[in-house]
Design a protein that fits this description.
The chain is α/β, with parallel strands linked by helices. The protein is built from twelve helices and 15 strands. The strands form two sheets. Strands 14-13-12-11-7-10-9-8-15 form a nine-stranded mixed beta sheet. Strands 3-2-1-4-5-6 form a six-stranded parallel beta sheet, with helices on both faces. Helix 1 links the parallel strand 1 and strand 2. The chain starts with a strand and ends with a strand. Bound molecules: nicotinamide-adenine-dinucleotide (NAD). Nicotinamide-adenine-dinucleotide binds next to loops.
Length: 357
């Protein structure tokens, strides 16, 4: 039997326990061997809850027994940490965003190419059942020619959230505001489902928070390489926060996702689905294209897809990629594409003109 893949977690703050829990739940395939943080108490706390030894970054890099590293440090450190780990012969799963600019991602992409190790960027919402079902619809061409793509991210974060870490709300370490930190999940879904973007025109505001250098409210018009057009809006100032919404309008029908679940899928000649992403809805909307694996995953979870399950699903994919030496579902190139699009949105807002990608 294959030994469990031995992991280290670098950065033991807010998101690290989600990785640690996912690893525990995959204990037949993975184990948490080491944890590391510049604030030793945080590493001690994570180790006491989830196991693993507290070690220095250098010890982790030089220990051949550690095969993979989950990078959970502030965003502006991601690519540097990823490059070091890849060059030390580790597989790397790096939290979103890949880094704070597309250029900053390059050394890690190069390190992955040269080392032959697996590099994956977290975009856990690709693993939500509604997202996978929408991807099935797009692959099938069920909506016909998609001409409208509207993405709305009306979230809210308190002032205390921005004050909780000195890297939050900075260009250097957060890379931007509501779009780079929070909205990137949905930007990645948009690119994954609707394809590359060729031009953006954007406006941004710092509307409702103090002591941040970045935007907390943003809107943009987006032109896709496919010819589709759409609106992209994001916020962390929209009190008290509302679910994310993605709408795809095509010549054969419309598909709307809200809060990671199906809102409506209406396709000519098929039963219209309204409601949550339970298996029947998925099966009907996808015209039966949803596989048995997805249905049994739903049953195993009692149809309760809770916070953390999507991270677990991505970790499972990553472990499989490392063991089978195949590309992961979310690779470094698509991680960089989301960062590049967001960079173009910021450039457009700064220049006050449309920007081509
Ligand atoms: N996928 C998601 O849904 C999700 C959710 C939250 C955060 N994140 C991402 O995870 C990353 C971390 O966010 P967070 O909210 O956990 O931040 P955080 O500030 O709570 O945690 C970051 C940790 O990294 C440590 N650290 C900083 N520099 C380090 C270094 N050089 N070596 C080792 N440790 C170091 C800090 O001491 C801190 O404990 C961010 O990039 C964020 O975008 C992703």
């Amino acid at each position: 039997m294959t030994q469990p893949l031995s992991f280290a977690i670098l950065g033991c703050g807010t998101i690290a326990p989600t990785h640690a829990k996912a690893l525990l739940s995959l204990s037949d395939r993975a184990c948490l061997s080491a944890v590391c943080d510049v604030i030793p108490d945080r590493a001690e706390k994570l180790a006491s809850e989830f196991g693993g030894r507290v070690r220095t970054w250098n010890e982790i890099l030089t220990d051949p027994g550690i095969e993979a590293v989950a990078i959970c440090t502030p965003s502006g450190l991601h690519a540097a940490h990823a490059s070091e780990a890849l060059r030390a012969g580790k597989h790397v799963l790096v939290e979103k965003p890949f880094d704070v600019t597309a250029a900053a991602c390059e050394p890690a992409l190069e390190a992955a190419r040269e080392s032959g190790k697996i590099l994956s960027v977290i975009s856990q919402h690709r693993f939500d059942r509604a997202s996978r079902m929408f991807r099935g619809l797009m692959d099938e061409g069920a909506l016909g020619r998609v001409f409208g793509v509207d993405v709305h991210i009306p979230w809210f974060r308190t002032q205390e959230y921005y004050d909780s870490g000195d890297w939050r709300g900075t260009w250097e370490m957060d890379g931007g505001g509501c779009l780079m930190n929070q909205g990137i999940h949905t930007v990645d879904l948009m690119l994954w489902l609707a394809g590359p973007v060729k031009r953006v025109w954007a406006r941004t505001l710092t509307a409702a928070h103090q002591r941040i250098a970045v935007e907390d409210h943003l809107c943009a018009t987006v032109e896709f390489a496919s010819g589709a057009i759409g609106n992209l809006s994001a916020s962390t100032a929209t009190y008290p926060g509302f679910p994310v919404r993605l709408e795809f309008a095509g010549t054969e029908g419309t598909a709307i996702m809200e809060g990671d679940e199906i809102h409506t899928v209406a396709i000519r000649g098929r039963e219209t689905v309204r409601g949550r992403a339970h298996d029947h809805a998925c099966q009907v909307a996808a015209g039966g294209t949803l596989g048995a694996t997805e249905a049994s995953t739903g049953e195993a979870l009692g149809n309760q897809w809770v916070w953390g399950d999507a991270h677990r699903a991505q970790l499972e994919d990553f472990i499989g990629a490392c063991r089978e030496n195949r590309p992961p579902a979310v690779d470094g190139i698509s991680g960089r594409a989301a960062v590049a699009l967001i960079g173009a949105v910021y450039r457009s807002a700064r220049l006050g003109e449309a920007v081509d990608l």
